[in-house]
């Protein structure tokens, strides 16, 4: 019997369609929230995959190195995080190493990898829009009110049954008397 932690981890793992390897150029769409309101926005980070750690475990991470305004930036993304909305493979890179940390210091020709163009989406999570969330809330409220009204009706029926058990016993006796006459 799997324990609760294993069950939770199985639910969190995303289904990954394609396999990506170090050297691939990825475009990662991450959901950013917490601007003092309920607004969410999608931030896109594009760069070369330097390392993939953890395999298909729930704690798996990928290290992506991108260039922003001429400055090299590395970000580590938890692969199965709910904030990761989508990962796309832009280019397939040919690398002979599992970890490409040497690209940090490499400049010029040494810092380039042989690549093939490949446009594929690895996975995309479906997150409901605000309108869908609002409609779901309304549906939930309607369901809750229906359940509450049903509970009240059943309680009222129980109370009526408790109050009038004499009527139920008298009715069959009266009917028996009518039938006998």
Which fold name fills CATH's third level, the topology of the largest domain? Answer: SH3 type barrels
At the first level of CATH, what is the class of the largest domain? Mainly Beta
Class per helix and strand makeup: alpha+beta
Count up the domains. 2
Strand segment count: 6
**Biggest β-sheet strands, sense, barrel:** 6 strands, antiparallel
C-alpha Rg (nearest Å): 31 Å
Distance between the termini: 68 Å
Order of helices and strands: HEEEEEEHH
Secondary structure tally, helices: 3
Shape: elongated
Give the strand order, joined by hyphens, for the main sheet. Answer: 4-3-2-1-5-6
* Quaternary status: single chain
CATH architecture of the largest domain: Roll
How much of the residues is beta strand, in percent? 25-35%
As a percent range, the share of helical residues equals 25-40%
Give the overall pLDDT as a whole number.
Answer: 77
Give unreliable regions as ranges: none
């Amino acid at each position: 019997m799997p324990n609760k932690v294993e069950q939770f981890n199985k639910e969190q793992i995303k289904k990954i369609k394609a396999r990506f390897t170090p050297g691939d150029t990825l475009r990662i769409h991450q959901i950013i929230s917490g601007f003092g309101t309920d607004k969410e926005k999608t931030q896109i980070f594009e760069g070369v995959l330097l390392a993939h750690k953890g395999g298909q475990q729930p704690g798996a991470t990928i290290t992506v190195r991108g260039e922003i305004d001429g400055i090299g930036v590395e970000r580590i993304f938890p692969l199965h995080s709910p904030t990761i909305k989508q990962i796309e493979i832009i280019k397939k890179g040919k690398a002979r190493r599992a970890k490409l940390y040497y690209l940090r210091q490499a400049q010029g020709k040494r810092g380039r990898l042989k690549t093939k163009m490949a446009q594929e989406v690895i996975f995309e999570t479906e997150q409901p829009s605000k309108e869908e969330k609002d409609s779901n809330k309304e549906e939930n409220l309607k369901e809750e009110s229906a359940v509450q009204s049903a509970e009240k009706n059943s309680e009222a029926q129980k109370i009526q049954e408790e109050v009038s058990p004499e009527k139920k016993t008298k009715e069959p006796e009266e009917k028996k008397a009518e039938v006998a006459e």
